[in-house]
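thought: fold this chain, then report.
action: predict
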Amino acid sequence: MPYYCRRGKIPHKRHTAFRKEGGGVYYEHLMGNLGFTGLQSLLYTLRLPTAILRAEKIRDLSWEGQADQTLRMRHFRTHRLAPAGPSPTVDRTPLLFNSHIALSIAMPDGDDSFYRNAQGDEIVYVTEGGGVLESQLGSLRFRKGDYIVVPRGIIHRYRLDKTKQIFFVVESAGHVRTPPRYRNEHGQLLEHSPYCERDIRAPEELETRDEKGEFPIVVKKQNTLHRIVLDHHPFDVVGWDGCYYPWAMNIEDFEPITGRIHQPPPVHQTFEGDRWVLCSFVPRLFDYHQDAIPVPYNHSNVMSDEMLYYCNEEFMSRRGIEYGSISLHPDGLPHGPQPGKTEESIGKKETKELAVMVDTFDPLVVAKNVLPCEDKDYTHSWIES
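observation:
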C-alpha cells in the first residue's frame, strides 16, 4: 500500500491547535476510506473545506450497454474512436463495465477543471502523453507508461504536456490496493513482490494557494456530475501527513516473474479491487525449459471475464491486434492461442509485448459507445484455414 508521507507544515500532535501567524488556527481535514479504518491523511488548510457557495446538478452519466449481449469473444480497436472531448476526467468514452468496475478511454487535448470522483477510486494508465497531476496534496508529474492511482474524494486536475494524450481509465467501486500476498503484516511490500516502495512516486511540491473567490469543482457521485462552488481555492493545504494520496508507478518498473515453464496470469498481478484484478504484461524472457511452450495454454475463464488492453502491436498468442486494441474473453468460453501461435512460440527466447489485463469476477457489459471500432471477424479467428 502507499507508504507514510509528510509534506508542508504540520503540528507536533494531531488534533491540537495549529496556530497561524497573526492569529487564528489552521483547519484540520481528515481524508480517508473505509470509515476511519482504512488509509488516511490529515490535512491542514487555510480555510474551511465546507465553505460551499452553491451546488447544482450538471448532468447524468448514462453508460448504456449493447442490446445484443450474445456470448462471444470480442475485439475493439479503441484508438480508432473519436475523442469524446478535451477533458481527461469528464470526457471519457465508456468501453466495458459492471457494478464493481468501469473501463473507459480518454483522448484529452486541454487542461482540466477541478474534479473529484466521489464514487470510485481511479487507475489511469497513461498510454500516450504526460504532464502534471495537481491535487490538494501536491503536484505529481506523470509520463507515458505510468499507472496513476487517485483515491476517491481527492480534488485534482490534470495539466497536460503539449503532446498526444491517451488514457486508459479504470474506475473501481471498491478501493484500489496492492495484492495482499505482496505485503507483510505491517503493509510493507515483500522481497518477492514485482515492485516495491522505491517504484511508487508520491506528490512532491506542495503549493499553498491563498485565494478567495468562486472556484467550481466537478464532482462525480451516483453516476451524476455535480458542480460545487467553493469560496476559496481548493488547494489551500499548508501541510499534511498520512498514507492517502495520489501516487504513480511506471509499468517499466514492474519486474516480471518468469520460470522454466509457462507461468500463470497471477504472476502478472499489479493491483486489485473488489471483484477484479489488474495485471501487467511486460517485456520479459520466455520460459527456459528445453521443451517449454511460451504461449499460454488453452483455458476457460470460469467465474471471470478477461479484458486485455494492448499497449503495443506485439502479443505472443494473438494476431490481428493493434496498438490500442481491447480483447474481451468472457466466462463460459475457453480461449487460448490462435492457430499457429503455439508452434511459432517454441524456441523463442523473449517477448516485447506490453499490455494491461483486467479480470473481473462479474460479467462485463459492452458499452454501445465502443461498437464503431469492433472487429466483427475476431470470434472466428481461431478457425484454421
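thought: worth noting. The radius of gyration is 22 Å.
final: C-alpha cells above.
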